[in-house]
Amino acid sequence: MIGGSRxxxxxxxxxxxxxxxxxxxxxxxxxLIAYPLVWGVWLSMTSAxxxxxxxxxxxxxxxxxxxxxxxxxxxxxxxxYTVFAEAGKLALGLALALLLNQNFRGQRSARALMLLPWVAxxxxxxxxWLWLLDPQFSAVSWxxxxxxxxxxxxxxxxxxxxxxxxxxxxxIWRGLPYFAIGYLAGLQSISKDLYxxxxxxxxxxxxxxxxxxxxxxAPITTILVAFSSIFTLTDFQxxxxxxxxxxxxxxxxxxxxxxxxxxxSGQLGEGAAIAISPIVFMIVLAFFVxxxxxxx
Amino acid sequence: MTVRNLRxxxxxxxxxxxxxxxxxxxxxxxxxxxxxxxxxxxxxxxxHFTFSHITDLLTQTQYGRWFANTLFISVGATVLSVFISYIxxxxxxxxxxxxxxxxxxxxxxAYIVPPAILFIPLATVIIQLHWFDQLWALIPIYATFLxxxxxxxxxxxxxxxxxxxxxAARVDGASNVAILWKIIFPIAVPGLIxxxxxxxxxxxxxxxxxxxxMSSSGNKTVSVGMTTELIRGDVFQxxxxxxxxxxxxxPAVLVYFFFVEYYVAGLSGSVxx
Lengths: 296, 273
Description:
CATH topology of chain A: MetI-like fold
Largest sheet of chain A: none
Oligomer: heterodimer
Structural class of chain B: mainly alpha
Largest sheet of chain B: none
Radius of gyration of chain A: 25 Å
Largest interface: A-B, 98 and 100 residues
Mean pLDDT of chain A: 88
CATH superfamily of the largest domain in chain B: MetI-like
Low-confidence stretches of chain B: none
Distance between the termini of chain B: 41 Å
Radius of gyration of chain B: 23 Å
Number of domains of chain B: 2
Mean pLDDT of chain B: 89
Strand content of chain A: under 5%
Shape of chain A: globular
CATH architecture of chain A: Orthogonal Bundle
């Protein structure tokens, strides 16, 4: 005999119990996600500052940021950062998955070790990268000089182009294990028969990849890129730890600029407008996801 | 070495160096003397081994406090989120209460709303609730991104539990509450472990909310304390910083190596769903 307590019998109606069980999650999500989301839209249309609720100003903040070269630069770099980092994660992640999908000694340890960048707290590994890319004592520069690839130490984070490239590389470093593990799961679900049939028909390895592997991985590619893009477009930890948006705003992105304007300078309304603006790209992204899923 | 071996191990070596370099660099810097950090014939090697960076970090800074704070918040947020998510996931897939479809869609949408979009309006909510600079407040705040993730993961897991088990128990006179705790719970343990380890890893990694909503030194987490209090001015104490990074990475890595198969299965599953 199981259960039968009075409390148990009162909750026996699925309808009552359902509401009770869903209530904590619903309260949390309504109070701390849905309400702030709506409140954020309102805030972006006010002149609120830290300590002052401000007044309704309509689309004024949006007009201000669209005319602001720093915001336009941040929007540009956010997109650039996302496009290059996603391309790099996709290519290197897929290549790693293809590598790990083969049988070799140490395959399991390799698979376990490769996830470390994803497991380790981003800020802490970003600090290690900051020190690796130090203008004076960079170990990466030291190595490149010894290999005769450069003649003297590079100031990786001191010039706009190298700072941007460095951040993209570090983002790829952190995100490629997620792509690799996702692709590895996808590869393991593809039937070996397909490759055998292709080999009998005389297909080369590249043809088999092009005609079998890549098309069958397409749904996984869409999910991986869409999810990863949303979080890359709104990245904060990596960039804030390594460059703080510098040198002179060259690596500013939506979130670092929103943080600077809203929290450091106290311009809540303007900061909220900046923080919300990547939603435009996310809706476009979601549209492509839905369409590609529907086409299949 | 055969050609086949070379074609596997050569690219693998490239990945190994690239992916593990920052961790190697943390270890080397942590145990290297201060003089050697600035002047060395080879930065990748240790010539004078020392523990002084670790002892300095633990005695001269608030690092120990930040570590304890991070542990408290991560464990608290994990326990709270897994509990809330377990009962919510069960309600969504089994109890078909009115509006369950809308709720499950809302939870999926909440999963893809990044904290970067929420942190400014949420700051004003936190101030109104008098949660600002209260360490425990990070537990419900972290639950906002953990609950959608865990609920989603547990819905997928609970779907695989056969209905017959519950129906047999119901025939024996078990109530829904009893079924939830005595029948489903033991079977759901692997799913709950997955949800818990991911929650712990994500909490340990969190930065933005802790940076914005905590202000006094005694309420900071490892990541926030290190970037706001150990990095000051132009002189970086790299020995201490890397010692702090290394110690801060350890809990996440230990949990990971202990449950490595759950991580692989969980990450693969989240893609397949």
